[in-house]
Design a protein that fits this description.
- This protein has 445 residues and is of the alpha/beta class.
- Helix content is 37%, strand content 16%.
- It has two domains: 337 residues, TIM Barrel, CATH 3.20.20.30; 76 residues, no CATH class.
- Pfam families: Bac_luciferase.
- It is an enzyme of class 1 (oxidoreductase).
Amino acid sequence: MTKQVHLAAHFPGVNNTTVWSDPAGGSHIEFSSFVHLAQTAERAKFDFFFLAEGLRLREQGGQIYDLDVVGRPDTFTVLAALAAVTDRLGLTGTINSTFNEPYEVARQFASLDHLSAGRAGWNVVTSWDAFTGENFRRGGFLPESARYSRAREFLSTAAELFDSWRGDEIVADKSSGVFLGNPAAGAFRHRGEQFDISGRFNVPRSPQGRPVILQAGDSDEGREFAAATADAIFSRHGTLEAGQAFYADVKGRLAKYGRRHDQLVVLPAATFVLGDTDADAQEKAAVVRRQQVSGATAIKFAEQLWNRDLSGYDPDGPLPDVDPIVGESTISKGRASVRMNRDPIAVANQWRALAAEKNLSMREVIIEVTGRQNFIGSAATIAEQINTLVQADASDGFILVPHITPGGLDEFADTVVPLLQERGVFRTEYEGTTLREHLGLGFSR
């Protein structure tokens, strides 16, 4: 059976894929930028628009640096505003479970689902670092080992609030001015290790029942959390072999939770560069990578591995001949790069071997080893690549991350999408009105 491709648009914010210095780059905070990308995605009949969240500006060596200088405005504010200028496009955002409360978040998502007529989606994330926690009253109180236990209870508590309304409890008697119906409507009581709350939820059942739940963890615990609770999972595995392994793994975990294979949508994030020909696209991609990794950015990336000040090094010269400092990061705050390199000395030696093999400078090594475009080619080539990966069960679709904001999705919408539609693997019109319908998911009960 031929699968339908799912596509979503990621508003990237300022990060290592965004080329903010390009003349075509626009604002990352003005509302017109969000409107442009969202309306382009809706014109192309994408499933949803995705907004990431940053709770603190990242620092390196005690200074804010160019990859995160503008930060990100409030997620709910932007999504609620976009609900007024779009009609069918899903509106999803990242909201942290570590520094928020279930009642507050459930109320905001239920409100967004009403305002958008059933298009809300919640990417549930956790945070472990005290650096981000300094912006909040509770600071970095939560140890890394406990973050998923809080997230699980946070999400289950929010679900209790969403489900506290069946949808038909209230009947208004206008003559008496009294609301009649089930006196238990909205009533909740939750006692657990993380939360002890009771009261009455004041937002009636929303069009989807619950917002679509997205999750992005790649650890074994994160995959298990997604299999138990998520409607969609982001993935960083965008190649055929790695994608198929991840797809089989997370889908294989569903049965133990009484869930079907089609109740979890797997969506890797993907960047792309389009050209008139494949060769033209390759040339453009090389230019984009040089823009994404300036000399200053190369130094910053190297510092995240070496965990030491490398400002005295030439980015167009060799890699440092000293070894990384092993232990807690003292350089990079707000990024997990150092923590994710479990053996930084081994990684540094791999980089040195690559530099020696290909005669690469520090900047060229960073370009080689950091994220690159998933799809490079003509519109026909990229359409073929996307469809091949989806039909081979390496994914169910992709969350596209353009390197230019806000117009970076325009060419894809105008050239690649029509080719997918011609193949019969992507919708030509929205068939439903809610995000759950776009993703092939049922009403959440």
